[in-house]
Amino acid sequence: MTIRKVGRVAIDLLAGALVLSAIASLTGVPARFSNHASEDGTNTNSGAFFIPQASGAATSTPACEQPTLIGRVVVASVAARTAPSPRAPVIAKFHRMNAQGTPQVVDLRGSAGDRPGGTWFRALLPIRPNGTLGYFPAGSLSVARTSYRIVVDREKLRLTLWNGCHREKVFPIGLGKESTPTPDGDFYIVSLLKPPVAGSVYGNYAYGLSAFSDALTDWAGGGIIGLHGTNDPSSIGDRKSHGCIRLYNWDIEKLVPILPLGTPVEIQ
Predict the structure, then answer these.
(1) What is the mean pLDDT of residues 222-244?
(2) DSSP letters of the chain?
(3) Residue spans in the chain of domains classed CATH 2.30.30.40
(4) Is the pLDDT of residue 14 over 60?
(5) 95 catalytic, yes or no?
(6) Tens digits of per-residue pLDDT, 92-103?
(7) How much is the average pLDDT of 171-200?
(8) Distance (Å, rounded) from C-alpha 109 to C-alpha 111?
(9) pTM of the full structure
(10) Quick one: pLDDT at residue 36?
(11) SS3 of 234, please?
């Protein structure tokens, strides 16, 4: 291997760690970015290794202070794979723009290196089944961060907006009825749309989430769960929807100016 090639390999290998270092230097805290191969801690590919967080990051930083890393697809098309390797099976392909016409984003969960020297990002994918994870080559994504996150309490019919450890706003919501319940889990915002017709069932604005209904599979878009306004204010504080999360129109208008695509949404 030539010295020039060794240099390129080293640069590629460190790319993911440098991204983390840059973000840590901006925020003063490590990112919300878990570096492990799988949920049970095992490595799914013996040719891969996982890059530790930036050195010097305070390990005692509360989880709520750790920003979420958001990857945005910057190439025409990229495949998400089952492991950090160009030879691993393809899970799904993604483009710069998603089916809703907004930039394609994914929430990042870790970074990994393959033995030839490439760096990969582990991401939560906006596909069925909910919770699917996949790997993207680092060069296919730009990386941003957000300190905002949403927590949906299904029992109390309440949505809380957090900015780091600070609770910014609390809103009453409507959720799915018994036959089409709102799914629980970790998701994120993938799109923001303004309905073209005033007074629609989606109210003034509609966020598309990375979540999919467990009950509906034959709807347009495959049963994507939305977070949106409503033309039926009486549904707030009740369970009448097909799984979507409903807000008063004046409440969702408070979210639209501040939440980026990729904002995490925890439904519990």
Answers:
(1) 96
(2) --HHHHHHHHHHHHHHHHHHHHHHHHHSS--B----SSTTS--S-TTEEEPPPPTT--TTS-GGGSPEEEEEE-SSEEEEESSSSTTSPEEEEEESB-TTSSB-EEEEEEEEEETTS-EEEEEE-SSSSTT-EEEEEGGGEEEEEE-EEEEEETTTTEEEEEETTEEEEEEE-BEE-TTSPPPPEEEEEEEEE--SSTT-TTTT-EEEEEEE-SS--SSGGGSEEEEE--S-GGGTTSEEESS-EE--HHHHHHHTTTPPTT-EEEE-
(3) 3-52+61-146
(4) no
(5) no
(6) 999 999 999 999
(7) 96
(8) 7
(9) 0.83
(10) 37
(11) helix
At 3 the pLDDT is: 39
Q: Which of 64, 165, 228, 242 is catalytic?
A: 228
Structure tokens at 63: 């989880």
As a whole number, mean pLDDT of residues 151-171 equals: 98
CATH code for residues 3-52+61-146? 2.30.30.40
Count CB atoms within 10 A of the CB of residue 90: 10
**Cβ atoms within 10 Å, residue 197:** 6
Q: Where in the chain is the domain with CATH 2.40.440.10?
A: 148-267
Residue indicated by tokens 């990229």: 78
Q: pLDDT over 90 for what percent of the chain?
A: 72
pLDDT value of residue 116: 77
CATH number of this structure's domain 148-267: 2.40.440.10
What does the block give as tokens for 131? 């919770």
* Residue found by looking up tokens 């993207």 in the block: 136
Q: 3-state class of 44 per DSSP?
A: coil
User: Is 244 a residue of the active site?
Assistant: yes
Q: Find the mean pLDDT for residues 31-59.
A: 46
- H or E element that contains 3: helix 3-27
- Is the pLDDT assigned to residue 68 strictly greater than 80? yes
